[in-house]
Specification:
By secondary structure, this protein is mostly helical. The chain is 37% helix and 2% strand. It is built from 13 helices and two strands, in the order ααββααααααααααα. The chain has helices at 4-12, 18-40, 64-67, 92-95, 107-121, 128-131, 145-163, 165-168, 178-182, 225-230, 259-276, 298-318, 342-346, and strands spanning 46-49, 60-63. A two-stranded antiparallel sheet has the order 1-2. The longest helix is centred in the first third of the chain and has 23 residues, at 18-40. The protein is extended and about 115 Å long.
Length: 375
Amino acid sequence: MLSKWFDEWNRKNPTDIFGPAILVGAIGAAVLVAILLVTWGQPFATSSMQTGPRGTGMEVVEFNSDLDRPDPTIAGYYTEEVYLPQGNEPLARDIYQNVQVLGDLTEDNFNRVMNAITQWVSPEEGCAYCHGDADIEDYGNDDLYTKVVSRRMIEMTQAINEEWSGHVNAVKEVGVNCYTCHRGENVPSDIWFKVGTVNEAAAGWSAIQNRVTPISHSTSLPSDALETYLLEENQIVVHDLESRVAGGPASETDLLPSIQDTERTYSLMNYFSNSLGVNCLFCHNSRAFYSAAGEVTPQWSTASLGILMVQELNNGYLVPLKDTYPEERLGPVFADAPKVACRTCHKGYQQPLQGTNMIADWPELARTEAPVYDQ
C-alpha cells in the first residue's frame, strides 16, 4: 500500500500512460519489422528492368512475379523425342519423291519433323496446308505455293542456326525453328511490308512521318526505318553531336548524317526497344551513347549481328519469294513480299520464347548436313 498522500496526489494530478505506451509499442513493432525485412528479405521484392524507351532512369520497377511471367505461347510448343538411327535404315530421299531438304533423315525422323512443322505452322489445316487434298503418294508434287515457301523456310532456319550462331546462341544454345516465328499461325505475327507515304497531306520528308503506324510503334517518327536499314542496308547513323553543325540531307557528295537520318535511326531504336521489351541501356552506355569502342554492353554486339542477319534473311530468302506468293499474301501498298525484323522472333522478350532451346530436340533444323543425335 502506498501512503495516503501519494494516492491523493495521483488523483489530483492524473497522468496519461496509454499514449506513450502505444507510441513506444508502435516504434518497437516498426523496428522489429525492419529487422525481419533485413534478415529474411522483403516478401514483395521488386526488380529494375529496362522495359521501354521513356524515363530518365531508363528503367521500370516491376514485381518479380511480373518479370517471371512466362511467355504464354511456350505452352503451345510441340516437341517429340528423336528416333535414334541404327545405321541401316533407308533415308527419306530414297523413300519419298522430290525430297530436296531433310532427305538425309531416316523415315521415322523425317515424318517426325514433318509432323512438328504441321503443329507449329498449320495445326488446324494439317498436312493439307502444304500438300493439298491429295493422296500421300502425290505429296512430292509442288502444286501449292505453301510447300515451295516451306521448303525455302526450312533452308533459312538451318542457315540461321548454322551461320548466325553468334546471335541466336550468344548466351546459351537456343537457336530457332519454325515455331520461333509462327507460334501456331500460318503467317507469323509481326512481319512487315513497305508502307510508303503515311502523311498524304505533306510532301517530301514529312510524308513518311507524323502519323501513327505499327512500324513506328505509334510515334511520329519515320515509318520507313525498317525498309531503310533492314532491307536496303543503309548505315545506321545520327547527326553530329555538336549543335549548329552545317549539313543537309546525306547524299553521295555530302556524307554528313542529316537530322532526317537521326530521326530514322531513333525510329529503328524505338522499334528495337519494344521488340525485345528492353530499354536503350540494354545495349548502350548512357555515359557514351554513341560510342561503340569498348563502351557498350555485350548485347550491343549481339544486336549488331542480329541486324546483319535480318538483312540477309530479307534479301536472300524472303524478298526473292515475291513471285511465289499469291496476291493476298503480298503487301497492301506495294505488293511486296512479307519481311522479318526483330519482333518477328522476339515478340517483346529479350530472348524468343524466353530462351527455350529450340534446337535441342530438333537437330535436323540446326544444320544443313546430316544431324548429329545425342546417344
